[in-house]
Design goal:
Elements: E1 13-15, E2 20-24, H1 35-48, E3 56-60, H2 64-76, E4 79-85, H3 90-98, E5 102-106, H4 118-128, E6 132-134, H5 142-158, E7 165-169, H6 174-186, E8 191-197, E9 237-241, H7 243-257, H8 263-275, E10 285-289, H9 303-308, E11 338-339, H10 344-354, E12 358-362, E13 368-373, H11 374-382, E14 402-403, H12 409-416, E15 422-432, E16 435-446, H13 448-469
Parallel strand pairs: 2-10, 3-4, 3-6, 4-5, 7-8, 7-10, 8-9, 11-12, 14-15
Antiparallel strand pairs: 1-2, 12-13, 15-16
């Protein structure tokens, strides 16, 4: 690929020799395509009278729309509260705070209709805060209209009307809906292709969404519900993408093309290379790259982050003798568990008594439900998200890093670079009437101290053996 400015363009394109053209939305001031809808939703709400001076803007978001709204709020003088899942990057948090926004984090595993989910939490805040408004990108008509009036029209103009295929990812769906509708009007023969992560449910036909994946690291696209602004009828073909492919492609775009893009851009380009293979040499495919590298400096840009998630081989760069040893070599004490019937107060008391910081929670059938963590429970209590007499199931962490007994200590060390602990898990077969069900069994919890104790103890024994043989 080579960089060049198309006639009448604003330098937001990179054109490839293969006929693939990229619209680089990370050139926007906030770093993503969501700047467009943040500004548009605020402007339209002001014109309608729904948003007035002194109001508070509240928005549930994966981060990029929040940044767009926080920018508008900073300029226009609104208080801004962003509700965002825990999995979203700390870089987004830093940018939002710098813009003066207040941030509420919600559990990543909470479903869209859960009381702990970002939408319900945002709605609760609006009920409690006078003169507040949720602009709500998921059902706000200004979302797709921003892309119908601007993004789609820009693509048409910058390509001189020659567009045979457009690749646009789907989060809220506003981008693909707006761009798709505009291009259908201006280029009736243009094929609209959309991108959806494995674990999301936006794609059609529904059979594409059938997957064992329940969590994906990719940010910015995919949801567990269908936003109102998503018009799936504008999409001719959907493709599902896996985390590893998206991040590898994003790294390639950065290294080989000099495009400082994010993971969702990698997702779009992954699909573009597949979908565009059906085009003739004289046809053009436009791929929209939604956001940039800034928000992911400690995520997929990091080799260690990729290694900890098995997206990249774990490299023993310093030649550690213990690197390829297995987790089974560590001393894993029999696991201490807590019943899901205990309250938050009872759980904290028991954990302090046993001197545990993190403990697995199990139900009456001995099924693992999640983790109780003293810091997390205390945070939930301090922010009034739970009360002391609430069941501990209201304050458990559903996202955690795990290893198997045959996992390498190298992998474990990568995980412990950023996580306070790793669970040692093992799949077990449970007999049920007419079926055998696999259940994840927790064998123990490993911390940095456990790994360090093994390394130092074994190193000491090796040293003694060498000295004894002299």
């Amino acid at each position: 690929m080579k960089c060049l400015k198309l006639p009448g363009s604003d330098a937001k394109f990179v054109i490839g020799l293969s006929g693939i053209v990229a619209k680089c939305e990370f050139f926007n001031p906030g770093g993503s395509v969501k700047d467009r809808i943040g500004f548009r939703m605020v402007e339209d709400a002001e014109k309608s009278g729904a948003l007035r001076p002194g109001f508070t803007i509240i928005e549930p978001t994966s981060g990029n729309t929040g940044i767009g709204l926080a920018m508008a709020s900073a300029v226009k003088g609104y208080r801004c509260i962003i509700v965002m899942p825990q999995k979203m990057s700390n870089e987004k948090v830093s940018v939002l705070r710098s813009l003066g926004a207040e941030i509420i984090r919600t559990p990543t595993a909470a479903s869209f209709d859960s009381p702990e989910g970002l939408i319900a939490v945002a709605q609760k805040l609006q009920r409690e805060i006078p003169n507040s408004i949720i602009l709500n990108q998921y059902c706000n008509a200004s979302n797709p209209l921003a892309h119908y009036d601007l993004t789609g029209a820009e693509i048409f103009d910058q390509c001189d009307g020659k567009i045979d295929m457009a690749i646009v990812g789907a989060g809220t769906g506003g981008t693909v809906t707006g761009v798709g509708r505009k291009l259908r009007e201006l280029c009736p023969n243009c094929i609209i292709v959309s991108v959806d992560p494995e674990g999301s449910i936006l794609a059609e036909p529904e059979s594409l969404n059938q997957s064992d994946t329940t969590f994906y690291e990719l940010e910015g696209i995919g949801y567990d519900f269908l936003p109102t602004v998503l018009d799936r009828s504008v999409v001719d073909k959907w493709y599902k993408v896996a985390d590893v492919d998206c991040f590898n492609m994003a790294r390639r775009l950065i290294k080989e093309e000099g495009l400082l893009c994010g993971g969702s851009s990698g997702a779009a380009m992954t699909v573009a290379l597949k979908a565009a293979a059906s085009l003739r040499a004289d046809q053009r495919c436009v791929v929209l790259l939604p956001d940039g590298i800034r928000n992911y400096m400690t995520k997929f840009v990091s080799d260690h982050w990729l290694e900890a998630r098995n997206f990249k081989p774990v490299i023993n760069e310093h030649g550690h003798w213990w690197w390829d040893e297995t987790v089974a070599k560590l001393k894993i004490e029999r696991n201490f568990t807590i019943s899901s019937k205990l309250t938050c107060s009872e759980t904290i008391s028991l954990m302090k008594q046993k001197n545990y910081t993190e403990v697995p929670i199990i139900d009456a059938n001995n099924t693992f439900l999640g983790m109780a963590s003293i810091p997390y429970i205390m945070n939930m209590l301090m922010t009034c998200k739970v009360k002391q007499n609430d069941l501990i199931t209201e304050a458990i962490q559903m996202q955690y890093r795990s290893v198997a007994l045959n996992s390498s200590l190298g992998l474990l060390s990568r995980i412990l670079e950023t996580e306070p602990y790793a669970l040692v898990v093992q799949d077990e077969a449970c007999l049920r009437p007419n079926a055998v069900i696999k259940k994840e069994s927790v064998k123990g919890i490993i911390t940095t101290v456990d790994l360090l104790n093994y390394i130092t103890t074994m190193a000491s024994e090796k040293s003694n053996q060498v000295n004894g043989s002299i």
